[in-house]
Amino acid sequence: MKKIKMGMVGGGPNAFIGAIHRMAAQLDGQIELVCGVFSSSPQRSYEYGRTLGLKASRCYRHFNDLLEQESSLPKSQRMELLAIVTPNHLHFQMASEAIKHGFHVISDKPATISLAQALTLARQLACSDVLYALTYTYTGYPMVKEARYRVHAGELGTIRKIIVSYQQGWLSGKNAESTKQASWRLDPEQAGLSCCMGDIGVHAANLAEYISGQSITHVCADLNTAYEHRALDDDGTVLLKFGDEIKGVLLASQVATGEENNLSISVYGDKGSLKWQQQNPNSLTLRYADSSMRVIRSGVANESSLAVANTRLPAGHPEGYIEAFANLYRNFAAQIRARQLVQPPCDKALDVPGIKEGIRGMMFIDSVVRASGSSQKWHAVQGAQLHD
Amino acid sequence: MKKIKMGMVGGGPNAFIGAIHRMAAQLDGQIELVCGVFSSSPQRSYEYGRTLGLKASRCYRHFNDLLEQESSLPKSQRMELLAIVTPNHLHFQMASEAIKHGFHVISDKPATISLAQALTLARQLACSDVLYALTYTYTGYPMVKEARYRVHAGELGTIRKIIVSYQQGWLSGKNAESTKQASWRLDPEQAGLSCCMGDIGVHAANLAEYISGQSITHVCADLNTAYEHRALDDDGTVLLKFGDEIKGVLLASQVATGEENNLSISVYGDKGSLKWQQQNPNSLTLRYADSSMRVIRSGVANESSLAVANTRLPAGHPEGYIEAFANLYRNFAAQIRARQLVQPPCDKALDVPGIKEGIRGMMFIDSVVRASGSSQKWHAVQGAQLHD
Amino acid sequence: MKKIKMGMVGGGPNAFIGAIHRMAAQLDGQIELVCGVFSSSPQRSYEYGRTLGLKASRCYRHFNDLLEQESSLPKSQRMELLAIVTPNHLHFQMASEAIKHGFHVISDKPATISLAQALTLARQLACSDVLYALTYTYTGYPMVKEARYRVHAGELGTIRKIIVSYQQGWLSGKNAESTKQASWRLDPEQAGLSCCMGDIGVHAANLAEYISGQSITHVCADLNTAYEHRALDDDGTVLLKFGDEIKGVLLASQVATGEENNLSISVYGDKGSLKWQQQNPNSLTLRYADSSMRVIRSGVANESSLAVANTRLPAGHPEGYIEAFANLYRNFAAQIRARQLVQPPCDKALDVPGIKEGIRGMMFIDSVVRASGSSQKWHAVQGAQLHD
Amino acid sequence: MKKIKMGMVGGGPNAFIGAIHRMAAQLDGQIELVCGVFSSSPQRSYEYGRTLGLKASRCYRHFNDLLEQESSLPKSQRMELLAIVTPNHLHFQMASEAIKHGFHVISDKPATISLAQALTLARQLACSDVLYALTYTYTGYPMVKEARYRVHAGELGTIRKIIVSYQQGWLSGKNAESTKQASWRLDPEQAGLSCCMGDIGVHAANLAEYISGQSITHVCADLNTAYEHRALDDDGTVLLKFGDEIKGVLLASQVATGEENNLSISVYGDKGSLKWQQQNPNSLTLRYADSSMRVIRSGVANESSLAVANTRLPAGHPEGYIEAFANLYRNFAAQIRARQLVQPPCDKALDVPGIKEGIRGMMFIDSVVRASGSSQKWHAVQGAQLHD
């Protein structure tokens, strides 16, 4: 079985997310990195590609070179998949160009920096044979998949309430914006409408929709800028409605001093509830009205087949973030292989976020920013009705 | 040293909170129960008093009998302190009568069922020599006191964000209201304006104000009735402002299936943050921007003297809810003894919630109910400016 | 219902265990302290009794005064129960005298300082109407009772292995023995054959036998004196056999720097295992070969009736060490009342450690000290065959 | 920078450890798998290699083919490093042959199945230019490295006690030995002298020696066979001496029903103690005699540079077992590169277990098996004096 050939745009020397994409892509031996453009500086791009062990001829200096030269290679050598790991404002254009050239795309989130762009991308994809994946990483954790399975199986009864929280502390302090990452994330030109909600709030919203199988329809939002000279939010809370019956709350902060990447979600139904926390990712806690608490553990009996399929190790050998990320790549690789063989992919492989989730994310960010600026309490999520 | 003589109103056979007040009052050997009215049924009141080992002559059938007959006893035998543990709607009148008769009062929360009543009670107390305590129990935990101390000492820097959450599941399910406690808590006549916010939301608000030393000035509220036939809220979320600089969120639910009494608070400042959870009450976690996490443990070196004074056991022998509750009684007993000796009480003894906290609680409930019914986002906490 | 009248010997100003016995005895309103001898200094004993609110006439200066004067009081006023909370070497003589005078006895552990004394006490009790309880406190925790219940119900299958560990750090450091408690615990005259095993190892052994329902039959021991000038052990490990089929390990230390009172036990059977830890006392973890983990929580559905009967609060309001201790007193009070009414006590009340457990404790200490001094590996627990 | 070319022997279709070696080797893009023999069945070996994407010419059918044909390839294509992941009894011979052919070796543990073999291998290595690594995986965790650093820096003071425990449940139940892995691990011909101690006890012993920097000098052992028809131990406890001053205990079990891979270690010194647990691998707890507890977290301020160098992700994105394993490969790759450049490797790269740790492991297994069969308590670790 040949490895799928991947190129990368972005992810140079100090971009931690690029390294993670590379590790995630290669972990399972399904994908190999063959080319890339790693920096906006042509020289740095070339040099960095060389340190990654790429052939000199495939360490490109410009994005256009990558597309054109790869397209001209014989099919057996050519890049098949492009990973986009640049700052947000470039995602749309690069994805769009890659699709035009017939390359499959896996993009860091958010898909774009506006809802209009996301809708455009969706239309483009609908008219092409190209596959598209969006790295909402947290849906790759086996216990997140287990949570989704348990909700869908009706184990919690009718869902009533969802609480999702993502707390970070890295933007706490007046001088926190001196890092390269902080500077682009707080810059509306590069990051889009929102920093905190665009970076992590949207992950939390995706997680809530993924596990519950419900769409956020209305929001009431309070975005904050703890350090007032900043151009975008670094903290916020959003009250949620998922239709008429389910209420929720989404908390996100990048100024929660001392928090690492404290993502957690609780879903409450009539019959039971569940809780998952990234800091203890291999456990899923289930509580019931009339029975004692259960803790589902990766690799232990009683898991769903979807969770099993996304677990690599025997129970008690902890798997973490890279493994969750790699599940997205591995499942997407299976989609690509099935496409190449003109056959349907297995169920497991379908469980990768795509442009639909990208659109939902942009709707969420748009609505939240609009709601936060209003003195009215509730605001419909624009276009929520589009979501099937 | 003589024990302080206590009477009790409420707290009959099936009222769990009455038994807890008695355990808390007597734990430290400072207070003895000498009389009471334990039920609205005169006969049941008498009989229950007897099972508690009280003299027959002091097992009263009516509240008025209690007040009058105790008043007529010689001072050396007479009740000195009345504990009020009835449903909410009776708190005000009973406290008011007891004060008129010169008895010190310790009341279960909320102090009253309206802000007007609470203000009346405060005026009455201001013109009397009687002491008044309100059992916001959670302020009795040593690690909650430690948290307050750390914030006041500036250890977290400027406070930016407060998240407080109180999750219970006992009202989950359509049939949950069949218990005696559920029936009065969901009845506006007995419980007041709110069930969930009045019962547990107000505890969470008090905890946030106690630890942070800040007052909630504005709220945006979404109260819910998960089971629509109920007359009062059983769930809700409140966005908070503490003045212009500090944002917060208060989450409370009684339909969070499987949650026990999951009260937790996180306070974030520029320099550090803290987290406390009732389910692990003897630990206080401190996180910093630039150093590793510390866990303060009851009884271990490095605690404040206030926490030490409210701890009974060597480290690692867990103390819990009854001990926290007993700290309120013990400290209030010290206030009463000091008043009897016409001397100032020690600092520790002053750390008991009183009518000021009772007024804050009523303001909170009032504002939240009003805000929840409005389509506007933010609402000032009525009379918040009265708070010093 | 009248309270049972209790006297106390020991437990003066700086003796933390005396205060705990008083809190535990009085928590449930079943027992009242009426008299005592609180210090070996007659004057200090008198004065301390007064600060506890006792009548001057019942603040005794000598143990003999207590016995004789209480015996001469009318039955309605007389002490019924004596709590012994002195250093170890006095337990035997005081219990023996109290029994002769017809007083029920509740003694801090160990029952005596030699096996011979414990056997003598057992014979004396067998010929008297007096009841005797020994405060192996940890058996009072509801989740410990639940653990015992689950093992007896066969939920774990055939038991194969038991690991019990009690780690403290208070004797770490060369100067740790300067406290009053350290000085008598490290003195063979007052503490008996062993410090660490006599103080906490014996608790761990009792816990293992209580939960498993099995007796330790053989030991291989390594007792240590981390600080060589000490006359008794401050650390040790004991390999255990419970008959031919079950192996175990008991770890105990008082020089485990930074440990608080870290008592934990794991019991492994063919079908499942359980784990309980004092630092999280309201949870009991059950693991299975072929199913996901369950966590039994005090007050949540699915508990045994014995655990329910020993729980005071709704789930999630933590109960701790004092409540566990109070369960022993409350259950013993029920035994005493039943004896007074010449009727059998309820099952729940029978669940209090007594002289049989006292004898087992002395056998354990004896055997471990002997085994530790030997170069042979295994040693029979002396008299283990006496245990039914 | 070119990737190092790796071959593999063992690790076929159902051998989970082979897949882990491949993931660990490739995670950081330093090493690529180019050839291998994956099964004792020539045909299955060939086919499996093909599914891994290897060239047909390098999917070997026999180990000798691998050695000879790779040796004959031009240097730029030739395998440089051989990973040995077969059952234990083949490790020695294969490592020895590979060394003779000039290939670097990374071997799954144990190094050999006898101490004599391990000593032979060490002598062979001493006379060659080849590098050798042994995958004691747990030393790859950043917080294990942090623990070692803290002990060496004297932060705990003089070490007094070490407790290390490794609990698994996979061999619980009479039918547990039906799996392929169970059958060879319980077979003395393939596994060597011991199952439980040889498989996991030796990991625990290595962890204790690695963190403490001390050697086990004496053991007292009790190995068990919970299911009597088994030919080797499935459980055991070992009392330890590290010289005259430090005592310890090692607990290991494969019949601890419901345990996953519960590896934990506590090290106690005069001034402080530390605890690490695989189930929460990114935290290291430090406790002190006179200060509050600290929790060091991977990626948070206050770590040693060695821990930082072995961490890939920002704090709070959990890293796990594969990442720890990959640290061994990455560091060994750096050793190999340095050797190729005839320069000294960086400090970080030296932190990989090698033949010295292999010898220590064989000494441990040998001594424990001998001690367990003896009625004497203590036994010297054979050749312990050889360890520097």
From TrEMBL, chains A, B, C, D:
It comes from the Bacteria. InterPro entries: Gfo/Idh/MocA-like_OxRdtase_N (IPR000683), Gfo/Idh/MocA_oxidoreduct (IPR051317), GFO_IDH_MocA-like_dom (IPR055170), NAD(P)-bd_dom_sf (IPR036291). Residues 145-274 form the GFO/IDH/MocA-like oxidoreductase domain. Residues 4-132 form the Gfo/Idh/MocA-like oxidoreductase N-terminal domain. Keywords: Signal. One of its GO terms (molecular function) is nucleotide binding. This is Oxidoreductase. It comes from Pseudoalteromonas rubra.
